[in-house]
Amino acid sequence: MQASISVENNLALLPVCLAFVESFAALRFQDQELVKRVVLTAEEAFCYAVETAYEPDETGTIKIVARFDAHGLKLAIQDWGLPFDKSVLNDYDPAAASLASDLESLGLFLIQRFADQVKWEHMGAQGNLLSLFFNGDYKDVTELAGGTELKVYDKNIPLAPEQEYIIRLARPDEAIHISRCLYRSYGYTYLNEDIYYPEKISRQIETKNLISAVAVSEAGEIIGHCSLSVRVPGILVESGQAVIDPRHRGRKLFEKMKDFLTEYAVQNGFYGISSEPVTNHTRSQKTGLKTGNHSCGLMLGYLPSTLTFRKMEQKSGGLRRSCVYNYMPLKRRNDIRLSLNREYRDLVTAIYTGCGLKVRTDTTEREPPPATSQVDAVFLPGVKIGVITVKRPGRDCVEQIKQGLFHLTMRTAAEMVYLNLPLEDEGCARLINRARELGFIFCAMVMALDEGRDMLRMQYINCDIDHDGIRLVGDLALEIYDFIQRESGLNERN
């Protein structure tokens, strides 16, 4: 469901906008405290747009678009005024707050605190867009247990009798059983918090944002699960949420579910399947390589230090952990031409060759870039990650990346920042080198991320990484890590 309202940039119209936001949020959320949080955030965002987007005597338009789906609610506040220059803002320190504190910084502080995700986009002639995301008021699986304790799976439990299993798509009404399975295996250690909310899983299955496969025993019990999360509709899906009841281990159920989902993805025309196995243990990496995945990168510090894994002997020591970025191509693609710098050319070519894809590199700029870029920056508070994505590079692209990096590292204290660059755009080779000057290093080739276009992902390290916990499988994964170590100077420091 979606609705919008457009008003003049006048604070006198604030009550009108807030009434619109409150009414719309109440359609999605039953939790009144959550509705109040949405309204408070919208108030700060509207006031910020009124006070900063236009000159004091300038009349302009502010548009608010509200939309909700299976994931929650999104508010988009759009203006057509001055570009949002985050670098000129003063820091707001709540510990040292006073009446003299900068109100602009206070507003941004509140926006970032109360929204579950914040995204800034510069869209040239289309203005500026501030998007605020709010997760649903879903009940945790432990709240829905009906008084029954959800015990962790006993790894030493005897095996169930040999039997035939059915592998099929999950139904929305089976979400509670899927969530229980995942909770009993992972506890509160899984990065994607959606697994703890059966209603969220159910809605994602209904809307086909989640393609969920289950293994069902002869007794009709769901004893295994694996899924594909849609990252780019019709193009890219991500594999994850895998679990097998220990009573039914050793029967290749995971491989069967993976094969089932792969066939589904092929039949439905997806370009490929991505996955992000952790580096702290090699089992998931080995399984991925056996089922057709190829190493395309290493995402340093992707997992927060607060995340723990059961049955792992090695501790992170308070350091962020890393993930391999894998990709399984499903469609043969021809004439892939990328704008690559000299330093990355051999490694990226090797990654494409590993995926069975041919690529040509070209650094020629046939046309001058447009004056303005389209760049967005996202901060994920729960995991302290920032993501900058260049949708369309222009002459101001480096400056926009600088602003995004400054805001994410200094204002929101993101511990890792990932930068996505569209390699199929002319002039990207030059942009890569400028990003390296800012401190970004190679991360991964992310295939088909932007409406089928491949993106180079670079990474900026703003914290300490658990390098001792990086254990890799496969020659290409090791080659990528060695390249990253040489580029960042880790070999010299270790």
Topology readout:
Blueprint (H helix, E strand, L loop, with lengths): L1 E7 L5 H15 L3 H21 L8 E9 L2 E8 L23 H12 L2 E6 L5 E8 L30 E4 L5 H12 L11 H9 L3 E7 L5 E11 L3 E9 L8 H15 L4 E4 L7 H8 L3 E10 L17 E9 L6 E3 L3 H13 L4 E3 L12 E7 L4 E8 L4 H15 L4 E7 L5 H10 L3 E10 L2 E9 L13 H14 L1 H4 L1
Largest sheet: 10 strands, mixed
Q: What is the annotated CATH architecture of the largest domain?
A: 3-Layer(aba) Sandwich
Judging from the principal axes of the Cα atoms, what is the shape? globular
Radius of gyration: 24 Å
Give an overview of the whole structure.
- The protein contains 12 helices and 19 strands.
- By secondary structure, the chain is an alpha+beta fold.
- Strands 1-2-3-5-4-15-16-17-19-18 form a 10-stranded mixed beta sheet. Strands 6-7-8-9-10-12-11 form a 7-stranded mixed beta sheet, sandwiched between helices. Strands 13-14 form a two-stranded parallel sheet.
- Helix 1 (14-28) runs antiparallel to helix 2.
- Mean pLDDT is 84; it is low at 86-92, 94-101 and 309-314.
What's this entry about, in short?
The protein is α+β, with helices and mostly antiparallel strands and about 500 residues long.
List keywords for this structure.
Heat Shock Protein 90, alpha+beta, 30% helix, 19 strands, Aminopeptidase, 494 residues
